[in-house]
């Protein structure tokens, strides 16, 4: 009982209970802090709609259950299943392109006959890093050029299929989750720099395959004032909300942009603007700290995982989670174009909560199934 | 799998590689978080004030509430311009169906013209706060109102708004004097405070309504309200109630105005009656008139074209802008000018032949009486309206003294104080002719001006003003429409003069001239002897304005000429002659004989002085105090 404070914490995290239940208590605590903060912002952003907050609690709880169940599954089973899962989900994506249902010109869902409909692209976010990690699991690192090209094809096929639905936000996340695994596998810096140099060419060719509404989003991003009442409205209003929050914010439930509905999508994609308006830069800083806790724990797990498969998968999952956050805050604050990426675990609704929590389940599994040394 | 990978694997090294990559990734994560925080710092600290202002601009809206417009009354309290509630059909485009569907839904219910729709579409393209309504049709009939109201629940974004609008109960007889209000145009907004007119529907376009716009308009109420993004008012932050516009009480007598208009019958023409003691305009008629309410409602292109293209020029304000030769009504003034500058006297006698010649074999300036009048003097030249007397008098005087003297009575100037758009007419001079025709003034030019013809052009308001100054024995009031504003006497800027006294070398000449004008009625050969038989004395002078000049010796045959070419018939007069209460000028365009305006004037004198009007004018009595 005379142990120093930090030793007590280590002792707590290593407690038998957590090892038995396969729960990574630090990651769990970080996630709970993030969720609690997110729910209080949602209460304000929803116009104090407690029913909406309750529905979000239900979703987060389901996500938590999924997380804890997956945590029980040893990584080796995941590794063995990876290629089969990948092929299966690619098959489902083909199904979406052929028989998908959806709205507003986008086909994103598959209807299970007599059941609910679901979005295979969400599952691809999990399976993509699994597939790349599996590919490198039994190959020496760093990868050869031939292996890099093979992996790039593995990444490109499902990403392009998702982009074709079209769902640019998810395609981006599917793509980066694979790329991150590739990066962690130790791909040579000369390839990375080469890709960076080729990026402008890629952007140029991407412009020509984009849908008109996607082009419009980019144009609006570049000059929101060109259509202040139409497509520029969202970004102008969200910047106004953020900027008018100042350093300390206007106070909880006092944000005029959010409470008077000037801010569109305030409870979903643009929820960070509500926080920024009501709690200012300080509030945003605290939220980012909560994210950094999750990410730091994730990267720690990745760095200390048992084998290449686990390292690549854990690292990719964590970095993809970061990309979620970065793209969302970047688009709401006007430094990235508006692509439909929610603020992870804070934005209302979406199947994304379940998939994100599933990936954290994988992280916990990786951390808690290590053979004792 | 993996069988072909027989390469030696250094697992420790591979682990170290991935670890390094994790560290690199962690650094990238921190860098990118730094970028986000930097962005937030830029928006929330550096640009804070800009966005705070933007957020407040979003949230706080100034709503202007148009004030009720001041009413316009006649001298007895009869309302000449009233406010009435109307119902307008407005649309909030964000809530309403698309244009085609909206048209389909509304067209069977309400009579909306293609122009209304075009106007609506153009308003759609202008900048507008989201969820702000646009007026689609500004005046619904009661029938339309009830039809729309029944269906309102299924018409999203369509609403019926109640507003006050102008109504002119007596219509066309008053249209030119009172003027009218109409929809505000972009051009109107250039001369007023845009902010004050936000939400206002109408602005004075002509007449009293236009001149007194700022007085009648009042001050709009302004409330600062907090609105949500849908434009719905959530709370009121601050409020300032509108100040209603001020009421105007005119000198005008509504019955006299209407009576004068009616007495012109089917003729075009103008009547202006002035109170010589105040310069107040008792009546100002321009016939034909038009229904000013058409302009309030928003006149259709066809209706407007019909009025504009009407040969009788109903939109033309003859009283202020009609240019006529004053004809023989100028003679009393010409006579006074002759006396003033020593070119004539009351005693000097003159032999009036049938014509006047400057040179023995020159052009003959004919008298209206073929045989001439024989031996006459100045007084008789007024009574019988002897043209040749004034030919020779003007010839002797030349144009300069004529110009100087007539200027004092307001000829050649716009003297009406509180109406815009009056014409200055034309009081010719040497300089004018040089500038206009690059020619000197010829003696013959003076001869024509002597009988109020030739180059001289005057408007009814000018002739009436001069007449009133004569009635007041030289006290010249610039004419004015408004007597009191709310309860305060209207005051006018003294810059250009609002009144002045014309002093003659011999002030007795006023009375003698008035006597001569009385004899125009009482004398057995007076040109207005038909007006005899009143209990009060009338002083008057007839006039016949030539529409075109007849050639030398050409016979004048009234019947053979097209009516449009008939001479204009004019009359000036005032009564009672010794203490005039009312001075009238009347002109019947192509009226032929001056008996028409003389009879009209007598009827108006009777009515005004005895306060007795035909029974059909009793309804004005009921409206008044």
From TrEMBL, chain A:
One of its GO terms (cellular component) is plasma membrane. The chain crosses the membrane at residues 25-45, 57-75, 81-101, 144-163, 170-192, 279-300, 312-339, 345-366. This is Peptidoglycan glycosyltransferase MrdB. The keyword Secreted does not apply. It is a multi-pass membrane protein. Peptidoglycan polymerase that is essential for cell wall elongation. Pathway: Cell wall biogenesis; peptidoglycan biosynthesis. Keywords: Cell inner membrane, Cell membrane, Cell shape, Cell wall biogenesis/degradation, Glycosyltransferase, Membrane, Peptidoglycan synthesis, Transferase, Transmembrane, Transmembrane helix. GO terms for biological process: cell division; cell wall organization; peptidoglycan biosynthetic process; regulation of cell shape. It catalyses: [GlcNAc-(1->4)-Mur2Ac(oyl-L-Ala-gamma-D-Glu-L-Lys-D-Ala-D-Ala)](n)-di-trans,octa-cis-undecaprenyl diphosphate + beta-D-GlcNAc-(1->4)-Mur2Ac(oyl-L-Ala-gamma-D-Glu-L-Lys-D-Ala-D-Ala)-di-trans,octa-cis-undecaprenyl diphosphate = [GlcNAc-(1->4)-Mur2Ac(oyl-L-Ala-gamma-D-Glu-L-Lys-D-Ala-D-Ala)](n+1)-di-trans,octa-cis-undecaprenyl diphosphate + di-trans,octa-cis-undecaprenyl diphosphate + H(+). It is found in: Cell inner membrane; Membrane. GO terms for molecular function: lipid-linked peptidoglycan transporter activity; peptidoglycan glycosyltransferase activity. It is an enzyme of class 2 (transferase). It comes from the Bacteria. Belongs to the SEDS family. MrdB/RodA subfamily. Its EC number is 2.4.99.28. Pfam families: FTSW_RODA_SPOVE.
Automatic annotation (TrEMBL), chain B:
It is a single-pass membrane protein. InterPro entries: Beta-lactam/transpept, Beta-lactam/transpept-like, PBP_dimer, PBP_dimer_sf, PCN-bd_Tpept, Penicillin-binding_protein_2. One of its GO terms (cellular component) is plasma membrane. It is an enzyme of class 3 (hydrolase). The active site is at 328 (acyl-ester intermediate). Keywords: Carboxypeptidase, Cell inner membrane, Cell membrane, Cell shape, Cell wall biogenesis/degradation, Hydrolase, Membrane, Peptidoglycan synthesis, Protease, Transmembrane, Transmembrane helix. Pathway: Cell wall biogenesis; peptidoglycan biosynthesis. Residues 65-237 form the Penicillin-binding protein dimerisation domain. Residues 269-602 form the Penicillin-binding protein transpeptidase domain. The chain crosses the membrane at residues 21-42. It is found in: Cell inner membrane; Cell membrane; Membrane. The keyword Secreted does not apply. This is Peptidoglycan D,D-transpeptidase MrdA.
């Amino acid at each position: 009982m005379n142990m120093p404070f930090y030793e007590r914490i280590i002792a707590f995290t290593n407690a038998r209970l957590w090892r038995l239940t396969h729960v990574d208590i630090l990651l769990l605590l970080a996630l709970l802090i993030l969720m609690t903060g997110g729910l209080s912002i949602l209460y304000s952003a929803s116009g104090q709609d407690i029913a909406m907050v309750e529905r979000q609690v239900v979703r987060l709880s389901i996500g938590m259950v999924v997380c804890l169940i997956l945590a029980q599954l040893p990584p080796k089973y995941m590794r063995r299943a990876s290629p089969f899962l990948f092929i299966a989900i690619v098959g489902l994506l083909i199904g979406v392109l052929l028989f998908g249902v959806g709205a507003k010109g986008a086909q994103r869902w598959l209807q299970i006959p007599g059941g609910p409909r679901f979005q295979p692209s969400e599952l691809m976010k999990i399976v993509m890093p699994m597939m790349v990690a599996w590919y490198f699991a039994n190959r020496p690192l760093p990868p050869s050029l031939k292996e890099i090209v093979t992996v790039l094809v593995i990444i490109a096929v499902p990403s392009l299929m998702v982009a074709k639905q079209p769902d640019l936000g998810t395609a981006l996340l599917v793509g980066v989750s694979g790329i991150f695994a590739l990066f962690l596998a130790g791909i040579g810096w000369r390839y990375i720099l080469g890709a960076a140099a080729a990026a402008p060419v890629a952007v140029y060719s991407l412009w020509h395959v984009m849908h008109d509404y996607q082009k419009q989003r980019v144009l609006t991003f570049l000059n929101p004032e060109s259509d202040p009442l139409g497509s520029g409205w969202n970004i102008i209003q969200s910047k106004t909300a953020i900027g008018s929050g100042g350093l300390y914010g206007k106070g909880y439930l006092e944000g005029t942009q959010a409470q008077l509905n000037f801010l569109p999508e305030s409870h979903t994609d643009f929820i960070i603007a509500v926080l920024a308006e009501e709690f200012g830069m300080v509030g945003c800083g605290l939220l980012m700290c909560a994210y950094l806790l999750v990410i730091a724990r994730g990267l720690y797990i990745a760095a200390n995982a048992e084998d290449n498969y686990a390292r690549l998968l854990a690292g990719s999952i964590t970095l993809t989670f970061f990309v979620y956050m970065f793209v969302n805050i970047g688009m709401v604050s006007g430094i990235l174009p508006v692509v439909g990426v929610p603020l992870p675990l804070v934005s209302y609704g979406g199947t994304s909560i379940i998939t994100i929590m599933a990936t954290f389940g994988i992280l916990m599994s990786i951390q808690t199934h290590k053979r004792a040394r | 799998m993996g069988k072909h990978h027989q390469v030696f694997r250094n697992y420790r090294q591979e682990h170290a590689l991935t670890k390094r990559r994790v560290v690199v990734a962690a650094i990238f994560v921190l860098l990118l978080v730094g970028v986000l925080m930097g962005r937030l710092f830029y928006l929330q600290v550096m640009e804070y004030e800009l966005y705070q202002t933007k957020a407040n601009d979003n949230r706080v809206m100034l709503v202007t509430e148009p004030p009720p417009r001041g009413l316009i009354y006649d001298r007895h309290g009869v309302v000449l311009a009233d406010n009435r509630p109307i119902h307008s059909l407005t649309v909030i485009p964000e809530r309403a169906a698309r244009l085609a569907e909206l048209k389909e839904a509304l067209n069977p219910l309400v009579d909306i013209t293609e122009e209304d729709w075009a106007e609506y579409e153009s308003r759609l393209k202008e900048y507008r706060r989201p969820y702000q309504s646009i007026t689609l049709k500004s005046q619904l009939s009661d029938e339309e109102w009830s039809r729309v109201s029944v269906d309102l629940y299924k018409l999203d974004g369509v609403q019926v708004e109640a507003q006050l609008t102008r109504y002119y109960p007596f219509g066309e007889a008053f249209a030119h004097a009172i003027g009218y209000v109409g929809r505000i145009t972009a051009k109107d907004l250039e001369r007023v405070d845009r902010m004050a007119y936000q939400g206002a529907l109408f602005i004075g376009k002509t007449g009293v309504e236009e001149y007194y716009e700022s007085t009648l308009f009042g001050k709009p109420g302004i409330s600062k309200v907090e609105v949500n993004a849908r434009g719905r008012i959530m709370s009121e932050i601050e409020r300032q109630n509108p100040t209603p516009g001020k009421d105007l009480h005119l000198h005008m007598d509504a019955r006299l105005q209407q009576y004068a208009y009616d007495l012109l019958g089917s003729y075009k023409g103008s009547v202006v009656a002035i109170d010589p003691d105040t310069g107040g305009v008792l009546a100002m008629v321009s016939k034909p008139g038009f229904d000013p309410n058409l302009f309030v409602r928003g006149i259709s292109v066809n209706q407007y074209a019909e009025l504009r293209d009407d040969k009788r020029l109903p939109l033309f304000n003859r009283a202020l802008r009609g240019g006529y030769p004053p004809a023989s009504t100028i003679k009393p003034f010409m006579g006074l000018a002759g006396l003033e500058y020593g070119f004539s006297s009351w005693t000097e006698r003159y032999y009036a032949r049938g014509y006047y010649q400057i040179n023995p074999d020159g052009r003959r300036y004919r008298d209206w009486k073929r045989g001439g009048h024989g031996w006459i003097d100045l007084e008789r030249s007024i009574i019988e309206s002897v043209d040749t007397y004034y030919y020779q008098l003007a010839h002797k005087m030349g144009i300069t003294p004529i110009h100087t003297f007539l200027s004092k009575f307001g000829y050649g100037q716009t003297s009406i104080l509180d109406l815009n758009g009056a014409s200055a007419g034309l009081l010719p001079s040497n300089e004018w002719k040089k500038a206009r025709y690059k020619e000197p003034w010829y003696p013959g030019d003076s001869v024509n001006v002597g009988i109020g013809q030739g180059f001289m052009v005057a408007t009814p308001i000018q002739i009436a003003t001069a007449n009133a100054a004569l009635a007041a024995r030289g006290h010249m009031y610039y004419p004015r429409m408004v007597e009191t504003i709310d309860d305060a006497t209207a005051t006018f800027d003294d810059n250009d003069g609002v009144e002045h006294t014309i002093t003659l070398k011999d002030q007795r000449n006023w009375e003698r001239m008035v006597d001569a004008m009385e004899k125009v009625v009482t004398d057995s050969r007076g040109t207005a002897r038909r007006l005899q038989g009143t209990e009060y004395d009338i002083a008057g002078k007839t006039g016949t304005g030539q529409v075109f000049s007849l050639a030398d010796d050409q016979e004048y045959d009234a019947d053979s000429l097209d009516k449009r070419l008939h001479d204009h018939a004019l009359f000036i007069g005032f009564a009672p002659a010794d203490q005039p209460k009312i001075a009238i000028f009347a002109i019947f365009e192509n009226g032929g004989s001056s008996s028409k305006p003389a009879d009209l004037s007598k009827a108006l004198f009777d009515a005004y002085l005895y306060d007795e009007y035909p029974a059909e004018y009793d309804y004005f009595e009921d409206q008044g105090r």
